[in-house]
């Protein structure tokens, strides 16, 4: 009797101790015992960095490696944090319509709706990888009720291939994993029958199931991932999950408990003007504004030298016509105008004695006008640069560069006025020769490859169009397998 009672008490104590340990150790996971503990788990939140590193290179995967239209790359990183009731994709099952659209075309609009499912916590994305080797980084939130993470990224170009991870557990024995890295293999979505990266669209009817691509499966010699001499494919990508932070809810916010008081802005401004102490930079802003007003009232000073000495002409800042008149008047004082008494050259004939001197005076006046115009433009440029001090110009590299540009513009103006045009060399596009003959088939039986090439005759210059592809490959041979007694000749070494 006493022995039986002792066993009952021992069993009860062990049960109580086990329950207490669960309450202390459990930081995440779904093994809750009561409602209070479940609410405690919802207060736990973890932030993870998700890093996708891709290794699709010619050195690792030389077979049919795509280099153009498009080159080897990966699509946008798609991810969900969820519980066991949600599935982004699963090997051995058919893909959903949204995931099928993504792996075939790269479009993600069909996957937006599943992110609102109550079984998911966070829908996150990462940037695409524009080349075969690169990195895409995203961040994901998980809590005690959503400890699984699923990630996928499309392989491009491909019929329906992708890399991904399905329902990976980041909560182990009630604790969040600090960091973990998982190697990824290429996966087939089961929606297309293509064997190569650039295969034509050939839908699978009815839709098949998703499966893992290996070095020997599918066992077809035309497959882009078919390497029968390798025991397994090297990893085409890796996913790394790194815990960044853990959060704990300390206070629940309830909007109904907050008292909100509304104050009219007009009454506040009228009764209490803004004190000076609110804006610590108010004095500085007022000083800057005053300095700007003083600068706006300043005038340009043009120094002119006359026979009686040095005089100063002040012109308002924005009066361009007055500036031109001032400069023109200063030139009138500095250099005399060509008068009508300029001795003309002897006329060729008596009947045209009045025409030749008039033409000479007109030509001289036009030359003087052009010279004055150039001087005015140069003087205005010097005045606006603010380098005129005390009647002596401080020439610097900026003034010299400005005068050089001005001379180039005037040269261009003179050339165009004479009916000449500056000759510019147009861009030159790339040109290639004709295709050469097709090479011999790489296999004597079964499915092989044959190639042909062409050469560049004119290289592109000055932004011309780039060269088209110089090598073309197509299948050759027969779809029937080789017989056992017939050797297979393969001219390519992978």
Can you give a write-up of this model?
With 494 residues, the chain is α+β, with helices and mostly antiparallel strands. Among the domains are: 40-248, Immunoglobulin-like (Sandwich); 301-328, no CATH class. It contains eight helices and 21 strands. A hairpin with a 2-residue loop joins strand 14 and strand 15 (309-315). Helix 7 runs antiparallel to helix 8 (397-417). The protein is flat and about 125 Å long. Mean pLDDT is 76; it is low at 17-26, 299-307, 336-354, 387-395 and 486-494. Keywords: Cell adhesion, Disulfide bond, Extracellular matrix, Glycoprotein, Metal-binding, Secreted, Signal. Residues 36-221 form the Spondin domain.
Q: Which key phrases capture this entry?
A:
494 residues, alpha+beta, Immunoglobulin-like, 7-stranded antiparallel β-sheet, 4-stranded antiparallel β-sheet, 21 strands, 26% helix, disordered C terminus
Outline of this structure?
The chain is 26% helix and 24% strand.
Please describe the topology of this protein.
Blueprint: H1 2-25, H2 35-42, E1 44-55, E2 73-74, E3 77-82, H3 97-105, E4 120-126, E5 133-143, E6 148-156, E7 161-169, E8 171-172, E9 175-176, E10 179-184, E11 187-188, E12 211-212, E13 237-248, H4 265-271, H5 282-296, E14 300-306, E15 309-315, H6 320-334, H7 355-385, E16 388-389, E17 392-393, H8 397-417, E18 431-432, E19 447-453, E20 456-458, E21 471-477
Antiparallel strand pairs: 1-5, 1-13, 2-6, 3-4, 3-6, 6-7, 7-11, 8-9, 10-13, 11-12, 14-15, 16-17, 18-20, 19-21
Helix pairs in contact: 6-7, 7-8
């Amino acid at each position: 009797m006493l022995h039986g009672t002792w066993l009952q008490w021992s069993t009860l104590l062990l049960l109580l101790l086990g329950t207490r340990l669960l309450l202390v150790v459990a930081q995440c996971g779904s093994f809750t015992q009561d409602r209070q503990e479940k609410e405690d788990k919802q207060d736990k939140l973890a932030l993870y960095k998700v890093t996708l590193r891709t290794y699709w290179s010619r050195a690792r995967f030389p077979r049919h490696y795509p280099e153009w239209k498009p080159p080897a790359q990966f699509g946008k990183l798609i991810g969900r944090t969820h519980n066991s009731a949600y599935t982004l994709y699963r090997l051995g099952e058919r893909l959903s319509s949204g995931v099928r659209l993504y792996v075939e075309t790269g479009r993600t609009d069909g996957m937006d709706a599943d992110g609102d499912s109550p079984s998911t916590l966070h829908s996150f994305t990462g940037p695409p990888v524009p080349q075969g080797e690169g990195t895409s980084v995203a961040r994901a939130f998980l809590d005690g009720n959503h400890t699984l993470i699923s990630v996928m990224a499309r392989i491009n170009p491909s019929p329906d291939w992708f890399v991904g991870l399905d329902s990976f557990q980041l909560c182990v024995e009630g604790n969040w994993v600090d960091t973990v890295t998982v190697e990824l293999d290429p996966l087939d979505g089961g929606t297309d029958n293509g064997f190569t990266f650039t295969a034509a669209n050939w839908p699978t009817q009815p839709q098949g199931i998703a499966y893992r691509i290996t070095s020997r499966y599918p066992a077809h010699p035309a497959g882009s991932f078919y390497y029968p001499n390798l025991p397994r494919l090297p990893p085409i990508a890796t996913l790394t999950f790194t815990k960044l932070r853990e959060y704990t809810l300390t206070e629940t916010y309830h909007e109904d408990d907050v008292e909100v008081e509304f104050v009219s802005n007009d009454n506040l401004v009228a009764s209490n003007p803004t004190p000076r102490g609110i804006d610590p930079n108010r004095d500085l802003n007022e000083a800057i504004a005053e300095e700007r007003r003083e600068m706006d009232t300043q005038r340009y000073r043009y120094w002119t030298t006359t026979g009686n000495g040095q005089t100063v002409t002040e012109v308002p800042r924005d009066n361009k016509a007055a500036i031109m008149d001032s400069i023109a008047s200063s030139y009138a004082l500095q250099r005399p105008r060509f008068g009508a008494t300029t001795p003309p050259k002897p006329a060729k004939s008596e009947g045209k004695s009045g025409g030749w001197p008039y033409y000479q005076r007109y030509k001289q006046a036009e030359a003087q006008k052009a010279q004055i115009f150039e001087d005015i433009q140069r003087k205005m440029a010097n005045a606006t640069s603010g380098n005129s001090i005390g009647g002596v110009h401080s020439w610097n590299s900026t003034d010299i560069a400005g005068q050089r540009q001005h001379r180039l513009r005037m040269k261009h103006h003179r050339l165009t006025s004479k009916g000449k045009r500056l000759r510019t060399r147009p861009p030159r596009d790339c040109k290639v020769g004709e295709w050469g003959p097709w090479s011999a088939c790489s296999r004597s039986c079964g499915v092989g490859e044959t190639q042909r090439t062409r050469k560049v005759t004119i290289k592109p210059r000055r932004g011309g169009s780039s060269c088209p592809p110089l090598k073309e490959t197509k299948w050759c041979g027969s779809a029937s397998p080789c017989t056992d007694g017939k050797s297979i000749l393969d001219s390519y070494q992978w």
